[in-house]
Amino acid sequence: MSSTVDHERSATLFWELEPVVAENMERHLAVVRDWNPHDYVPWSQGRDFALLGGEDWRPEDTRIDPAARASLIVNLLTEDNLPAYHHNLMTALGSGGAWGEWVYRWTAEEARHAITLRDYLVVTRAVDPVDLEKRRMQFTSSGGAGEPVELLPNVVYTAFQELATRLSHRNTGSATGCPIGEQLLARIAADENLHMLFYRNLVGSALELAPDETMEAIRDVVRDFEMPGAGQPGFRRFATMIANAGIYDLRLHHDKVIMPILRHWQIFERADFTARGEAAREDLAAFLRKLDAQAGRFTERRAERSAAARR
């Protein structure tokens, strides 16, 4: 994904936005709730594996629906790739001042998610831990991360990605049928929501400072958006299962992720764009019409398949 913001303008925006970063960091710390990963894991359900004289995982150990299990794996591996995301944020936002303080705080909070999800999945034997570790090694060794490393595209992408992740975690928790899993994923989703608010506010300020350049970044990010776990082994098969189960699909992506943030930024009501920004907004509107139509076709076909299966 490329940005049309020149390097000189990007450097200026970096300094212009730093007070906004500091303000939102202060707001975040005032409302965030620290929590302990160990509190959300049912340790009493755990038992040793074969190396320590117990039994290794068997398929019948899991009591979670296959689609929910696929979503749990995707969500965990996405969180596992934190080193790549941290590196990209440092590249895009830097390591000094308010920007650096935020990146390190964000990283520390995100690390809890992978810690707790893995403990929960291994203790409850919800997934094959050997397969999970192989997937983790393959994905994190690839160095892949979906977000761009330029300032404006990065903060725009992360605003959408955090909301998408929040939605995915909440819906996955509901799909597990496990009260403990649902509670854990709701806790993680609450973190993701606060992270989304941080980046959403940052982009809102960027729109005031550089409306045309920010509008172009929004168009590019929405048009090319991929979830950060897209490079995982078996992602497409898992994504299909997740979409067919209604955990995360095009309809939700359009209605619950893209459109709420665009409405918050008042993208289609703003009057501060030049011809350059207007062209980007028109491109975005055309893309959204296509996305909405694709989402409609997907939900119709899914409903038809569901009806046929019930016959």
TrEMBL record:
EC class, as a word, reads: oxidoreductase
Q: Quote the EC number.
A: 1.14.19.2
Keyword tags = Fatty acid biosynthesis, Fatty acid metabolism, Iron, Lipid biosynthesis, Lipid metabolism, Metal-binding, Oxidoreductase
For this UniProt entry, the molecular function terms from Gene Ontology, in alphabetical order, are: stearoyl-[ACP] desaturase activity
Q: Which cofactor does it need?
A: Fe(2+)
Q: Which domain of life is it from?
A: Bacteria
Matching InterPro entries, A to Z?
Fatty_acid_desaturase-2 (IPR005067), Ferritin-like_SF (IPR009078), RNR-like (IPR012348)
- To which protein family does this belong? Belongs to the fatty acid desaturase type 2 family.
PANTHER family associated with the record: ACYL- ACYL-CARRIER-PROTEIN DESATURASE-RELATED, STEAROYL-[ACYL-CARRIER-PROTEIN] 9-DESATURASE 7, CHLOROPLASTIC
What is annotated about its quaternary structure and interactions? Homodimer.
Designated name of the protein = Acyl-[acyl-carrier-protein] desaturase
